[in-house]
Amino acid sequence: MKIVKLKKEMKKIAEGLRKSRCSIGFVPTMGFLHQGHMSLVEQAKKDCDKVVVSIFVNPIQFGKGEDFKSYPRDISSDFLKCKNGGADIIFLPSTEDIYPKGFQTYVDVSRLSKYLCGISRPGHFAGVATVVLKLFNIVKPHRAYFGEKDYQQILIIKQMVTDLDVDVKIINMPIVREADGLAMSSRNRYLTKVQRERARILNDALGMGERLIKEGERNPKKVVKELRGMILSQKIGEIDYISICAPDTLEELVEIRGKVLIALAVKIGRARLIDNRLIGI
């Protein structure tokens, strides 16, 4: 496994791989890897000749007062997991190399960014889209892999790739969960023991929402009310949002029909956790 720190070197390697007709699978991460990340590496390994994992805590997707400085990091553990998982290259750039002095260009996927997490985290998705496009230009992957826990992020990246004619196929992979149903997240580390035990309510609430819909409830406001009450009963934190929306546009629904997305975000102590479930009726 090769570790590359400079974007100039990464570009040269990627160009060489493409010239030799090697397919490149890419897994962009912010590090502190867990089994959710490794499921992406595993799939990339199956699909592609070479797998590149980037580890870069992207400063421009964090807002004022968010956890950029305290975001969990463990490079040694990440290296070991990538090596054992079969990654061929780790791209570990510096902030200065990604955003050199004078940097001023951002990518704004405006419509999809105004819903869900975009409401409470203004500018977040411009930061995400910008760094992902830069990484695509550097790594030059044929396929890039993302987890469905970040459902809105996947939609935004797919839209960006379509709008800007980026030559990469986006592969979304299922959410990987802990044994009790909590979606795996690097930020789960922030939870105390009690908070961690109660955090399972997020997945339980999604399950209840699915049951209500499949039992015939078609009023999204009634479903949201039930989910809100269920989560608040645990007294674990503050609900950012609970939304029942169209899976392709993220627009809130006035009536539940066809395929819908239940998405939620809850602040529990220092952690802001998101989760979602696609439901077809």
UniProtKB/TrEMBL annotation:
Annotated (R)-pantoate binding sites: Q61, Q153
Keyword check for Kinase: no
InterPro entries cross-referenced by the UniProt entry: Cyt_trans-like (IPR004821), Pantoate_ligase (IPR003721), Pantoate_ligase_C (IPR042176), Rossmann-like_a/b/a_fold (IPR014729)
Main localisation: cytoplasm
Gene Ontology MF terms in the entry: ATP binding; pantoate-beta-alanine ligase activity
Catalysed reactions, as listed in the record: (R)-pantoate + beta-alanine + ATP = (R)-pantothenate + AMP + diphosphate + H(+)
A single GO BP: pantothenate biosynthetic process
UniProt keyword list: ATP-binding, Cytoplasm, Ligase, Nucleotide-binding, Pantothenate biosynthesis
HAMAP family given in the database record: PanC
The protein's role, per its UniProt record: Catalyzes the condensation of pantoate with beta-alanine in an ATP-dependent reaction via a pantoyl-adenylate intermediate.
Subunit organization: Homodimer.
Note: The reaction proceeds by a bi uni uni bi ping pong mechanism.
Protein name per the record: Pantothenate synthetase
Organism for this UniProt entry: Candidatus Schekmanbacteria bacterium RBG_16_38_11
Source taxonomy: Bacteria, Candidatus Schekmaniibacteriota
